[in-house]
Amino acid sequence: MKRGRLRVLLGAAPGVGKTYEMLEEGRRLADDGRDVVIAVVETHGRAATAALTEGLTVVPRTTVTHRGVALTEMDVEGVLERAPEIALVDELAHTNAPGLLHAKRWQDVETLLDAGIDVITTVNVQHIESLGGVVEKITGVAQRETVPDAVVRAADQVEVVDLSPQSLRDRLSAGLVYPAERIDAALSNYFRLGNLTALRELALLWLADEVDSALKSYRAEHGIQSAWQARERVVVALTGGGEGETLLRRGARIAARSAGGELLAVHVSTQDGLRSGNPTALAAQRALVESLGGSYHQVVGDDVPRALVEFARSANATQLVIGVSRRGRLSAALTGPGIGATVIRESGDIDVHIVTHSAAGDRFTLPRLSGGALSVKRRMLGFALALVGGPLLTWLLVSFRSDETITTDVLAYQLLVVLVALVGGIWPAVFAAVMSGFTLNYFFAPPLYTITIADPRNVWALILYVVIAVLVSFVVDRAARAARAARRSEAEAELLATVAGSVLRGESAVPAMVSRTRESLGLAGVRLIGPDGGVIATDGEPVRDGRHETVAVGRTIDGSPRATLELHGHPLDASERRLVDAVAAQLAAALEHTDLAATARTAGVLAETDQVRSALLSAVSHDLRRPLAAAVAAVGGLRAAGPQLSPEDRAELVATADESLTTLSALVTDLLDVSRIEAGVLAVSLVDVDGAGIVLSALDELGGGPDRFELALDPDLPLVRADPVLLQRVLVNVMANAARHSPPGARVRVSTSRLGRTAEIRIVDHGAGVSPERRDDMFTPFQRLGDSDNTAGLGLGLALSKGFTEGMGGTLTPEDTPGGGLTMVVALPVAESARPRGAVS
User: Fold this and answer.
1) What's the whole-model pTM score?
2) Helices (H), 257-303
């Protein structure tokens, strides 16, 4: 019997519309004449979902009694007996009641598939077995019901039913997902915007990987070798050398240019080409790959270029990043084109990036103007050409010698002299000219095989050979000097442009400029020394004998150098000294930039302090004056009236003085507390405390009853790590603020819950709320948002609450209340070890 087809509707979270989509698809198929039945559907009381079941055949569920409770489950035998063409099965990861044929619903689905029945089912990404740990880290909720990855991956079709996180929260707030009593708890815990965004990304990435696996299988089955650029895959070849970090960061930037780009690093283990490398460097580069979001691979291959290209093709790579060869030009000329050229030739439609780095064979160094125009290497090559080319040319000409070929023989040797002059300059050319003259005389001028100058014209021929060699060498020397001067000018311009641009990068520019200077001038080491003798930046190593040149970098007001640049290595010529002076000027500008930035930061701190001081003086001059004046007036009235004051008036004045002094004491305490927070000297004593107990203590202090506050405390809330005194003050401030802004008759809801390693206390009001752009101002000292009078104090309550909470290692975060209002969330870490729950410690 042909096995049925499985179609899975994958969702990021409950409520995205998986069941709705499944029922709509079932109705469409039924309208097309297909035999569709509902094997099991969970509507969760949603009217719109239940309405879609009308008109579809429903296989009655079977009832199982477990511990005295009647449970209904899918009747697998009933579905098999009905033998429909398509069965709709909701919640693939569901755990069946004990006593049924299978423990899990996905096993029931396997039975239906084996019977040839097509199945459309639903599952949330948090129920996929391999993702359980990741989901728990995101949401703090462990999933008990899971389905093996292999079951979902084996499906013939997997579709993501997608809904934006905010749209899902809106549906939840509107009561379209959960009943009203569960909305607040769901929004504040599992259905947070960040949680939903992460789950959505997880679902899309899981499906993308599944599609990628299907694509690889298809290409393998059909023998397709060319890369299909469905998404950007960048393979970086690592040698274990120091250039690996540069290559990885370049590859990461290339991968980041397109959505869904993937970074893969590969190291080929072999004894030639890309050698095994430094294990320490490879380990560091592997850690860097993982931090960049990529993956590390290691393959073994004798042919490094072929191994790299084969790996890139197997990974369906679109880009291959390799480093420029670390061999010098002579080594490359002797050993062949190298790995880079071979990879480019074999890569086909894979783009190859060859990235330069500091370990390359030709580092950026200023060409030197001293010494000969041609390098020693070129002169040696000229002598080698003369020594090898002369005998080869002689052998060739002797083989075809005749009386009529003497002119050709002379021109051939003259050509050799010109070639040697072009390659090696004057001395190899003179050497080739002399050797050519004697060779012509010995092999081609009669009498043969003797060196005899019988005819004076032969002497002139030798002289002409030398003159031609000198003239050609002179032209070559002039051209080489001009080319080197041009390269020098270009290199100087590049160095100055780099140094000038580095000034704009601030503090990080100084070490970069020092490193660039050492590399460009070919020095052993460069150090920038401060006026106190401390090293500001250094690159390379100082020479052992301590010889160095120094250059003053900038000047202070008294004329002393701002810093000193030490240059260790060869003596500098005039042009290099000019460049160093330009670098020193730029370094002085960079140091000044750094000093100005530090001054600006200090000024910013002073400005903030001055702002707080001004606000404090304003608050003291206004808010403290009222209770102080009232207390002074009450005490003055008592003193002036003396015994003539009636008992009622005396009691009223005493009450006024007491209330004013109490208010004054509270204001002064708040001022001292905010001063300690601003100074960073807040004393915190962390212990394991009962969060629910602190909530009740705060309510007692406020005198809040059931008419003002509604409690929803989690009985299983673990102990939290906090300072009980500070936590109570935080709750009193926040709860009082919520009660003050709640409309008449509306109660403030206080709830507790746990989310992973964090315990949350949520204070929910249904007042006017605070717009998102003004929420940062809520926690600014001496700010009273929306207050029209000064009876609310100095406006320090929320500022103190935030400072106290952060001092205890927690957070105080404002959120919107569904339906309007503000929710303040106090989040604190759960205690490391749970002690017996009891009184506040």
Assistant:
1) 0.42
2) 279-291
